Amino acid sequence: MSETSQQNAVVQVDHVSMVFNIANEKVQSLKEYFIKIARRELMFKEFTAVDDASFTVNRGDVFGLVGTNGSGKSTMLKIIAGVLEPSKGTCTVNGTISPLIELGAGFDPELTARENIYLNGALLGHSKKFLDEHIKDIIDFAELHDFMEMPLKNYSSGMVARIAFAIATVTEPDLLIVDEVLSVGDFLFQQKCENRINDMIERGTTVLIVSHDTSQIERLCNRALWIEKSKLKMLGDAKEVCAAYREYER
Ligand SMILES: Nc1ncnc2c1ncn2[C@@H]1O[C@H](COP(=O)(O)OP(=O)(O)OP(=O)(O)O)[C@@H](O)[C@H]1O
């Protein structure tokens, strides 16, 4: 790769593979699990969720990931976000990241929504002072003013997604990673999120987005990657990749 393209890369994925060890049989409890491990009775088999992936996401790209269920999209995003260490290969990210990956991750269901804003905000690296100054913006964007003192366990998944999106986008990171969270929000909230993503794109944020809604990928993204059964199947212009993927799904 040339020096210029390297400087332009926000995400550089180089021959990345992710292999999980899956137990061959179901165990009923943690105790049984440890007993079987100690007696060497529990066998594992390897499962390759991402197989030798290499690609680059450049500054200013709005990059979509598509593929059928279980093809490895979320695993790829978790590697990019630094949540998972790849079994092979390297993944480099240049800049700050706001990951919106697993709905509810980084939240405590027993705490109120307000307390969770501080907890999740701290996990994203924000100070208490910063969160005090921005909590009104977060609550305003999520439109959940009447529910701030309610424990998060009583929230619907759409309400959790509203809070998670509002916190992740309170600052403008170099890279915004959005997994299926948008799909659980209602139509109006999805539109509001898309508008905010578009504003961030205009100001230079690079976006990585997973969605089963190919029209959403076509609307938002310039480039797309289709992952199928753990392997990269097609990389290129978002409209072309979505068209090929739709054809395959039929
Ligand atoms: N921690 C894990 N341990 C074992 N297997 C895992 C783990 N995480 C993911 N997998 C497996 O890896 C494969 C890819 O999962 P992944 O969640 O990346 O798929 P996906 O493309 O995001 O699917 P979907 O569209 O359904 O969200 C699946 O078969 C899944 O069961």
Automatic annotation (TrEMBL):
<keyword id="KW-0547">Nucleotide-binding</keyword>
<keyword id="KW-0067">ATP-binding</keyword>
<dbReference type="InterPro" id="IPR027417">
    <property type="entry name" value="P-loop_NTPase"/>
</dbReference>
<dbReference type="GO" id="GO:0016887">
    <property type="term" value="F:ATP hydrolysis activity"/>
</dbReference>
<feature type="domain" description="ABC transporter">
    <location>
        <begin position="32"/>
        <end position="250"/>
    </location>
</feature>
<dbReference type="GO" id="GO:0016020">
    <property type="term" value="C:membrane"/>
</dbReference>
<protein>
    <submittedName>
        <fullName>Teichoic acid ABC transporter ATP-binding protein</fullName>
    </submittedName>
</protein>
<dbReference type="InterPro" id="IPR015860">
    <property type="entry name" value="ABC_transpr_TagH-like"/>
</dbReference>
<dbReference type="InterPro" id="IPR050683">
    <property type="entry name" value="Bact_Polysacc_Export_ATP-bd"/>
</dbReference>
<comment type="similarity">
    <text>Belongs to the ABC transporter superfamily.</text>
</comment>
<dbReference type="InterPro" id="IPR003593">
    <property type="entry name" value="AAA+_ATPase"/>
</dbReference>
<dbReference type="GO" id="GO:0140359">
    <property type="term" value="F:ABC-type transporter activity"/>
</dbReference>
<dbReference type="InterPro" id="IPR003439">
    <property type="entry name" value="ABC_transporter-like_ATP-bd"/>
</dbReference>
<dbReference type="GO" id="GO:0005524">
    <property type="term" value="F:ATP binding"/>
</dbReference>
<dbReference type="Pfam" id="PF00005">
    <property type="entry name" value="ABC_tran"/>
</dbReference>
<keyword id="KW-0813">Transport</keyword>
